[in-house]
Amino acid sequence: MACKGILKILMVIFNSAIFLAGVATVIIGVLVEISRRHVLGVLDKFKDISAELAPLANAGYLLIAVGAVIAFMGFLGCCGACCENKCMLMIFFIIILIVFVVEVVAAVVALLYQPKAEKLLDKIRQNVAKSIRENYGQNDIITIAWNETMSLVHHISLFCFRMEHLCCMDEFD
């Protein structure tokens, strides 16, 4: 009987976390959609890049949809565990199964299209490098964006270096 209670509490805790993650994903998707116009305005200035990144224009909607499904899953799992409702738990596990199958299919598709994706990313990398050489310092939007990006990368790399140094101090002593 105690084991059942512990499992019930764990199910509620984990599904509450899943629900909150889903809500956070929906909020991020909404924020992406709000700022999408500004990003697309910047990308429209680059003729070579914007056509290749067109599928990313719907990333906000994708985040909202995925977040809603995750939040729904968390809700079903949490309420199903609290109320011990078999119908809710069955729907929860069916959705988990569907998500697992979709992940396996996505992994296979990613492996099949890996060379094409690498070519696309290489082309984008070359176009971005070309546009930086041509527009950096001349276009305020691009200059500010790259300065902020490089500053962020610098801060992240310093943080990672410090964390690695702190974690590995025992190895060098």
UniProtKB/TrEMBL annotation:
It comes from the Eukaryota. This is Uncharacterized protein.
